[in-house]
Amino acid sequence: MERIYLDNAATTALDKEVLEAMLPYMTTYFGNPSSIYSYGRETRLAIETSRKTVARLLNAHPGEIFFTSGGTESNNTAISAAIHDLGCRHIISSPIEHHAVLHTVEHYGSGDVTLSFVKLLANGHVDLDDLEQQLASHEKRCLVTLMHANNEIGNLLDIDAVGNLCKKYNAIFHSDCVQTVGHYPLDLRKTPVHFVSGSGHKFHGPKGVGILYINDNVKIQPFIFGGAQERNMRAGTENVYGIVGFAKALEMAMNNFEKDSKYIQSLKTYMIEQLRKNVKCSTLNGDVEGRSLYTVLSTGLPKTEKSEMILFNLDINHICASGGSACTSGADQGSHVIHAINNNPNLVTVRFSFSKHNTKEEIDKVISKLQELI
Ligand code: PLP
Questions:
Q1: CA-CA-CA-CA dihedral for 314, 317, 320, 324, to nearest 10
Q2: What pLDDT digit, counting tens, does each position of 299-321 carry?
Q3: Contact 123/155 with Cβ under 8 angstroms?
Q4: Minimum-distance ligand 1 atom for the alpha carbon of 72
């Protein structure tokens, strides 16, 4: 039975070309990049070439790109460094961040470091007036950590506006760009941001590899101690094939951005139309037709005995979707994002997220299943 995979915000399928680029680094080129002989030089070259590729594609300096184990590590590192190395004593974040940010700011935002959340507008966007008021009211240096695109509802942040506010108040700005790196052409030289997190598996790259962009103007301490890898900042033998795969996936994503984003947006638009026409009781979460990620569509369905089982029943019918982020899929304990934007206990949330591999025919099948299942 063919499965329909509509959970691409959770993870994406590895591209064949990405796998092909990675394979030689699992077999022929197995040297430790720190070794001085030819085996080591081959893998060192692969890492540094990948770093240059990533830097070029994001318009950053290679020295600003650090390879990590993924978005979670990058988020943790940026937040911890802002507190420990850059003198931030107040954190401003939002209640709809991914847990990789939310749990980290909750951890650090206690004791002499304080934490506050920005207000959200009715459509789920960050209230920039409130952000400015908060920045202006703190004498202590602030860290602002706000995600570029929300993984559950798709809302896109005006990253330049937030960055400029941070500049005005001498705050450090970190943005979790896990849902936008590889999905939008970012120009980090022009974006007023100190830290950016990205993750390979969200754009058809491998899992367990990500990047942390650290702007040249901020100097932080090593985040993992040990050997001299990643210019003494992150010790440990590098994930060579992961890094090669990350760079290849980003290159493919950016080369095909125009075509793929247009196609994926057309799927999302089609699904919105079909939901409105055929699943009339459904509602949409977030600023779906405004500043919104083209890959994510979050829908609310009236809560009934049947709809409460929707994810389970979709799964039985070989349709993969989620209730929110990957960690809440399956068991619906309610999403903190949906609670924050729309505290309606009478709705069940289903997030559909698309990739270049999906088709309109798949959406038609999902719509007709939804009609049956709710
Ligand atoms: N931030 C966002 C917005 C995400 O969607 C995810 C993945 O679910 C993460 C962070 C975590 O990234 P990773 O799985 O690479 O640790």
A1: 10
A2: 999 999 988 999 999 999 999 99
A3: yes
A4: 16
